[in-house]
Amino acid sequence: MIEDFIKKYQYQKKANLKKYNTYKIESLANYLIFPKDSQELLDLLKYLKKNNLKYIILGAGSNIILAKNNYDIVIKLDNLNHISINNDTIVVEAGYSLMKLAREVATLGLSGLEFAGGIPGQVGASVAMNAGAYKQDMSSIVESVKIIDDNFQIKTLTKDELNFSYRSSLFKEKREYICLEATLKLQKDDKNKIFSLMENRAKRRMETQPLNMPSAGSVFRNPNELFAGALIEDLGLKGYNINDACVSEKHANFIINKGNATGEDIINLITYIQSKVKEKYNIDLILEQEIKR
Ligand SMILES: Cc1cc2nc3c(=O)[nH]c(=O)nc-3n(C[C@H](O)[C@H](O)[C@H](O)COP(=O)(O)OP(=O)(O)OC[C@H]3O[C@@H](n4cnc5c(N)ncnc54)[C@H](O)[C@@H]3O)c2cc1C
Hints:
By secondary structure, this protein is an alpha+beta fold. The chain folds into 3 domains: 2-76, Uridine Diphospho-n-acetylenolpyruvylglucosamine Reductase, domain 2, CATH 3.30.43; 83-194, Uridine Diphospho-n-acetylenolpyruvylglucosamine Reductase, domain 3, CATH 3.30.465; 210-292, Uridine Diphospho-n-acetylenolpyruvylglucosamine Reductase, domain 1, CATH 3.90.78. 28% of the residues lie in helices and 26% in strands. The chain has 8 helices and 18 strands. It has helices at 2-5, 38-50, 98-107, 123-128, 170-173, 191-208, 228-234, 263-281; strands spanning 10-16, 28-34, 55-58, 64-66, 70-76, 83-86, 89-93, 110-111, 132-133, 136-137, 142-148, 154-158, 178-185, 187-188, 241-242, 245-247, 255-257, 290-292. The strands form 6 sheets. The protein has a 5-stranded antiparallel sheet. It has a 4-stranded mixed sheet with strand order 1-2-5-3, with no helix packed on it. A hairpin with a 2-residue loop joins β15 and β16. The longest helix is centred in the C-terminal third of the chain and has 19 residues, at 263-281. The model has no long low-confidence stretch (mean pLDDT 98). The structure holds flavin-adenine dinucleotide. The site of flavin-adenine dinucleotide (FAD) has 33 residues, from β3, α4, β9 and β13. The site of flavin-adenine dinucleotide has 33 residues, from β3, α4, β9 and β13.
């Protein structure tokens, strides 16, 4: 019985996941477990494997679509949040907030994370999906990462081993790998210059993105040399909705939840947009967000 095993863990039973995903989709976790460190995480993963129990890993829930009304086990990495800073080298655990990190290193006059000031994810998931903006991404600052692999070995992989590409990395091929910690290399720069760049970008985001509504950021990757948002806008789909899932009027590559959208509503809207873009432009839009089934 899992409850015997997780007795010593921090966990919640029958947890509503609405506050743990930025789309604000209602969904239930029978067990929402917060391992206190990588050893607890490792022990838990081994237990789940041995007992053939399915789980999902959740970071800040800002790039996922919860497709199910009910998940058995959800693991949240918030407690893996240690950080150490040595000159321009940062060693930071997977559950640390990327936005918080971007602000903290800016205060220290360290440049390299300006692109991340508006990305509301955790470090681990951001490495895994190679989050980025303004032609920069995690691959430009990651030196190495510590992971748990599919044989429950803790290993360090160098940047070259991580196969980074646009919004992708080795973690997309090896779905069971979990990022535990990242070592990032930044550069000294003028603090005011860093803050001013970040403030300009935050202002621009406020103007162009529907930040007052629940969403999970860009829905689709930009196709080569094109913008997914422009293609969707050209089709007249701004404001198009399926129940409460709606293409944002402000930015056509955002889907917003107007209240009670389900994961299925969002997925149906995504499929509809993809079919329209394929029909008109013969382009296959690739989903940037992750559907959790
Ligand atoms: C308003 C808004 C703006 C955004 N802007 C950007 C942007 O400019 N650029 C951008 O790239 N993204 C953007 N995003 C999307 C999102 O913030 C990023 O993709 C972020 O990196 C996701 O992190 P997360 O912790 O929320 O991941 P989650 O959504 O919790 O998880 C995403 C995936 O990663 C997996 N995962 C979680 N933790 C780990 C781990 N430690 N190891 C391995 N896999 C893991 C999960 O199982 C899931 O499959 C935006 C989102 C919002 C809501």
